[in-house]
Design brief:
It is a single chain. By secondary structure, the protein is an alpha/beta fold. It folds into 2 domains: 178 residues, Rossmann fold (3-Layer(aba) Sandwich); 225 residues, Dihydrodipicolinate Reductase, domain 2 (2-Layer Sandwich). 29% of the residues lie in helices and 17% in strands. The chain is built from 14 helices and 15 strands. The strands form 2 sheets. Strands 13-12-11-7-10-9-8-14-15 form a 9-stranded mixed beta sheet. Strand 14 and strand 15 form a beta hairpin. Helix 6 runs parallel beside helix 7, helix 8 runs parallel beside helix 11 and helix 11 packs across helix 13. The longest helix has 20 residues. It is globular. The protein starts with 15 loop residues before the first helix and ends in a 13-residue tail after the last helix. 48% of the residues are buried.
């Protein structure tokens, strides 16, 4: 795919088309409140980042609501292959029409008078990427679409917020990172734990030697394959619902009959589209583990002792129980298991620190109040993952969870899945990103894509 001539300057947002969209009303006469004009401390449309959201199911809709809170953002479009339907979190109804209504209602409530109808609803992402009025996109589709959409969005000159896990395969992650770098795009991965002060504090303790030399990092991920969409009993072929472009949902994945349990929230339990809990949560805790170890630009040299449980199922085929060990060149070992408490425990020669969502523990306990000096390693400080992305879109600085580091983190999860499926130890070269002496495992670093959704 040919890349445009990208610029590293802040995107030009003051466009007539966008301004019309930003102040559009259904009622006449047209009354433009002071907030739209930028008075009273509000941000004028000409200074806002015009965002579009590709994939507005579960996570995409939740993220959309967060970005709406940032007055530096104007949501101009939502895109989803599903017009409207059930089968998402707890059987809820999602899709592009509910998302469009959510956006229009939000902006209507900001108006002094009149109804806002300025958010476009698209079925095909190509219309969004071709719109020069869009500055940035969020990609919150199933994992098997992340690579193609990221490469295409970067080539179209869009900044990108992409949900975790970053990629479906190691090879796709490499293509994504290279495309973002080549196009000089701002990129944020939805690994929001990097914007949590407890996770950052734990990593800074480890990076600055407060627990001594790290020997083991225990990473606990959730087990099982939960039925999030309440569709687990509907795994056989059914007619495609009206308003759902199932062929476009499949995209680069192999052709397969439609079944409710295949799509929406439960796609993550099928290897054609995701990697189970190992990659779903692998975009979080292993990422923090590598961040704390200072390994965010590299990776392990060996995957060993891989054991996975794969109960027979006619559709859901990812591991329900798992264990593997990632060995690093300095001798440290990251152990990933569903048997550990959910979180990350760094163990060193002089103490330990355990961090999870909502809490942090350490021994010695004084580590919890530890402060750092000017000569200490300090990690990027972000208190809000979404605002950090917009900050960087405006400043052109690197986000707290950049593409290359996300690629390196999710590679650990991909290698763990490969080792469990093959029931073999793997030797890994993180510099060349190759499995050594194992052609079968090397082949599994990539997967064939269905035409026409093929990457180089």
């Amino acid at each position: 795919m040919n890349s445009p001539n990208p610029t590293s300057q802040s995107p030009g947002i003051a466009r007539r088309k966008f301004l019309r969209r930003a102040v559009g009303f259904a009622a006449a006469p047209l009354i433009v409140p002071s907030s739209v004009l930028g008075r009273g401390g509000h941000v004028a449309p000409s200074n806002r980042v015009a965002m579009a959201f590709i994939g507005v199911g579960n996570q995409g809709t939740g993220d959309l609501q967060q970005f709406l809170k940032d007055e530096r953002v104007q949501v101009v479009a939502v895109c989803d292959v599903n017009r409207e339907g059930p089968g998402y979190w707890n059987g809820t109804v999602r899709g592009r029409e509910p998302a469009r209504k959510l956006v229009d209602k939000f902006y209507t409530q900001q108006r002094a008078k009149g109804e806002f109808r300025g958010c476009a609803a698209r079925e095909d992402f190509r219309e969004v990427l071709a719109d020069k009025g869009v500055d940035a996109v969020e990609i919150a589709t199933p994992d098997h679409w992340h690579a193609f959409l990221t490469v295409a969005a970067a080539a179209a000159g869009k900044d990108i917020y992409c949900q975790k896990p970053l990629s479906l395969t190691v090879s796709e992650g490499r293509l994504m990172s290279d495309a973002v770098k080549r196009a000089q795009r701002v990129f944020q991965t939805g690994s929001q734990q990097r914007s949590d002060r407890n996770f950052r504090h734990a990593c800074e303790l480890v990076r600055n030697g407060r627990i001594g030399k790290v020997n083991t990092v225990k990473v606990g991920l959730p087990p099982g394959r939960p039925d999030f969409g309440k569709t687990g009993d509907r795994k056989k072929a059914e007619p495609v619902p009206e308003g759902f472009n199932y062929n476009l949902w499949l995209g680069p994945a192999p052709e397969a009959p439609y079944a409710p349990a295949r799509c929406h929230v439960n796609f993550r339990w099928i290897y054609d589209y995701s990697g189970g809990q190992v990659t779903d949560w692998g975009g979080h805790h292993p990422d923090i583990a590598q961040w704390g170890m200072g390994m965010e630009h590299t990776g392990p040299v060996e995957i060993r002792n891989a054991k996975g449980v794969f109960p027979p199922d006619e559709l859901w085929n990812t591991a329900t129980e798992f264990h593997f060990e990632a060995v690093y060149a300095n001798g440290a070992v990251m152990v990933v298991s569903d048997k550990f408490p959910n979180g990350v425990r760094f163990e060193g020669t002089e103490g330990w620190v355990f961090v999870r969502r909502g809490g942090i523990e350490a021994e010695p306990k004084v580590l919890l109040t530890e402060t750092f000096g000017e000569k200490d390693v300090r990690l990027e400080a972000s208190e809000n993952h979404f605002r950090n992305f917009i900050d960087c879109v405006r400043s052109r600085k690197e986000c707290v969870a950049p593409c290359e580091q996300a690629h390196r983190s999710i590679t650990v999860a991909h290698l763990g899945n490969i080792a469990m499926l093959l029931r073999q130890d793997l030797r890994w070269d993180p510099a060349r990103e190759q499995v050594l002496g194992n052609p079968a495992a090397q082949w599994m670093l990539n997967r064939p894509s269905r035409a026409p959704w093929r990457l180089a």
